[in-house]
DNA sequence: GTGCCAACGTTGGCATCACCAACCATAGGT
DNA sequence: ACCTATGGTTGGTGATGCCAACGTTGGCAC
């Protein structure tokens, strides 16, 4: 996001949107750096996690679960398939679909990324106490839910 | 960032980095949409605000103040100059530098963007009470400061 | 059954943003 | 004079979030 953020802009430095973007940028940097070191990118983790949590699914399903665009899902799955972390098989019951399945190797990789991510959370929230982290999560959850709902009124249940 | 964020990923939905990125995405979308409607982009506001707060400056100075990369400052200033919102004049005391000055029109535009941004803050934090918004700002400020400092130990004072 | 619309996978493209590398001109100190 | 640091500029990279379009296939109505 930025190079040297001494944030000398008084009017901006108290704006939630600015702070959120700053925080996001730092978080993004952490994720990008460490995931890159682990040979992965944000999309990869999201997809693997979705597969682990809800089981095999079509690509469109994965897109909906993870919020990743269909077209981006294709690219990410290509990469994951290239590393044998997932398997793409045609759905016998619907020839339009591919059924994506996590491989054992994919599960191992996911477990690794899980650890990396946990460490990232910790570093990101380093200056906050546990109670403060919980509070931050609570507040952000409210904000995110509010806007997610506004954007996807259809996805009522899940 | 995403299309339909029903966030069905239990393990992710409580991770601060995920929440921050989600919130940032929503905020980013709001900013992009409304700034586009106002004929501006995020960089533009940051630069105009920096000029208004600290007065005319060289491009490198602006980059440091706003955290925008030197090369990106050039492009943004070109656009701003094209709209007569800023003036780029050579520094008589240092022929390497350009002195960037806000024009009256630039100030008007900034004032407008200021209003747009205030509205965005409000929409972004819609689900939160004022006390909660303050708390969110406080927590995020701690996080951002912590990482900004880690990244730019040199920019001690400012 | 035929026809039409919806969903799926895929390709290709666009925009923003953070960032890096390289250039050349100029300052400044030695 | 020389060498280094700084400033403006150009150009390029990569991640991410989207949108548009295509051909294929399913499902439904008629």
UniProtKB/TrEMBL annotation, chains A, B:
<dbReference type="InterPro" id="IPR036390">
    <property type="entry name" value="WH_DNA-bd_sf"/>
</dbReference>
<dbReference type="InterPro" id="IPR000835">
    <property type="entry name" value="HTH_MarR-typ"/>
</dbReference>
<dbReference type="InterPro" id="IPR039422">
    <property type="entry name" value="MarR/SlyA-like"/>
</dbReference>
<dbReference type="Pfam" id="PF12802">
    <property type="entry name" value="MarR_2"/>
</dbReference>
<protein>
    <submittedName>
        <fullName>MarR family transcriptional regulator</fullName>
    </submittedName>
</protein>
<feature type="domain" description="HTH marR-type">
    <location>
        <begin position="6"/>
        <end position="145"/>
    </location>
</feature>
<dbReference type="InterPro" id="IPR036388">
    <property type="entry name" value="WH-like_DNA-bd_sf"/>
</dbReference>
């Amino acid at each position: 996001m930025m190079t040297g953020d001494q944030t000398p802009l008084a009017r901006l430095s108290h704006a939630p949107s600015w702070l959120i973007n700053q925080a996001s940028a730092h978080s993004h940097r952490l994720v990008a750096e460490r995931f890159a070191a682990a040979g992965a990118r944000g999309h990869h983790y999201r997809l693997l996690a979705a597969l682990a949590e809800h089981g095999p699914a079509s690509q469109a399903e994965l897109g909906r679960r993870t919020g990743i665009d269909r077209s981006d899902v294709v690219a990410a799955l290509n990469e994951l398939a290239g590393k044998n972390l997932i398997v793409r098989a045609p759905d016998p019951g619907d020839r339009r679909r591919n059924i994506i399945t996590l491989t054992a190797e994919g599960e191992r990789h996911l477990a690794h990324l899980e650890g990396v991510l946990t460490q990232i959370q910790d570093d990101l929230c380093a200056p906050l106490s546990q109670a403060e982290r919980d509070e931050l999560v609570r507040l952000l959850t409210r904000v995110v839910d509010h806007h997610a709902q506004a954007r996807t009124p259809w996805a009522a249940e899940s």
